[in-house]
Amino acid sequence: MRDLKLSSSGGLRKAPAKTRANRKKSEKKTFALRNFLHRTLRLLVAGCSLVLLVIGIALLLQVILASDLFRVEDIKVVGAQRLSRDTVKALSDIQPGVSTFALDLALISRKIEENAWIHQARIERIFPRQLNIVVKERRPLAIINLGYLYYLDENAEVFKVLSAEDSLDFPVISGFERETLLQNPALGQAQLAQIVALIEDLAQRKIFDLTQVSEIHREANGGLSLFTLVGSVRIKLGEDQFVAKLDRLEKVYPRVKSRLELLAYIDLNVDRRVIVQIEGQPPGAAS
Predict the structure, then answer these.
(1) Domain at 69-137: CATH code
(2) Torsion sign, CA atoms 181, 186, 188, 193
(3) Of 40, 129, 165, 283, whose CA is between 20 and 30 Å from 155?
(4) Closest Cα to residue 204, out of 164, 243, 233?
């Protein structure tokens, strides 16, 4: 039987406040421990579920990638004109039946671009079993003489040594040295870009156009001269304002065209004038 203490008035004493406080602390600790265990268990369950989900997805992807659903059966070539589609396919070295996900598309594109005629190449996946090879071919605008004859494209890039089967029906660019272009490629690119702009301007003219030009020569002072296809007459353009100078030439060209074989040169470097030098005579002027 529990021993109870009596108060001075004969009643029961209350338990001390300190005992009650200790009891509450103990209950709080037990409750906190229980909550911690519950949270830990939930986290463990969630973590295990996530791991199982990732493993399941990985296994599913492996099954999909290994299946025949994504094996390449159809390869289309877009943009090829000079090169045949079979040639572009051969450059890609893509074998029918390979998994589309096993292909390094960037590497294949670079491999195709090793061909001199290909400026850019891009591979597109068309799910589930098709690949598109999209190419942009180079467009030659002129032939540049650098010891050997090379093609120059619309981006002012020297890209191919001419072979026996290549067309010669382009104006020839002269006055450049291969070593000079290699030593200072930025300057060389700027000079060639200037010539490309001149060629594109001549190509759209009606009176004196690109078909009447046989050669574009870079002079030692950096200026440009054109040589006509008929009579090989030098037309001095200088270093700038080519459009305005050619506009001025076209105003008088119909009058001098029939006499080209008699001319030594045409000088467009005098402001607002066209100087015509006739063989064996002092310079004359045409308005």
Answers:
(1) 3.10.20.310
(2) positive
(3) 165
(4) 243
CA–CA separation, 35 and 38 (whole Å)? 5
| Dihedral Cα 196, 201, 203, 208, nearest 10 deg | -120
Which of 3.40.50.2300, 1.10.760.10, 3.40.50.11690, 3.90.340.10 would CATH assign to domain 140-286?
3.40.50.11690
Q: For 46-59, what is each residue's pLDDT tens digit?
A: 888 788 778 877 76
How much is the CA Rg of the chain, to the nearest whole Å? 42
Reply yes or no on whether the pLDDT at 6 is more than 90.
Answer: no
In the DSSP assignment, the letter for residue 6 is B
Instruction: Give the pLDDT confidence score for residue 67 in this predicted structure.
Output: 67
Q: Which of 63, 66, 92, 67 is nearest to 77 (CA)?
A: 92
DSSP-derived 3-state class of residue 276: strand
Estimate the share of the chain in helix, then strand, then coil, as percent rounded to the nearest 5. Answer: 45, 25, 30
**Residue 97 DSSP code:** T
Dihedral sign (CA 160, 165, 167, 172): positive
CA distance 14 to 6: 10
Those residues with Cβ within 8 angstroms of residue 128's Cβ, 6 or more apart along the chain or in another chain:
69, 70, 100
Cis peptide before 282 (omega within 30 of 0): no
pTM: 0.75
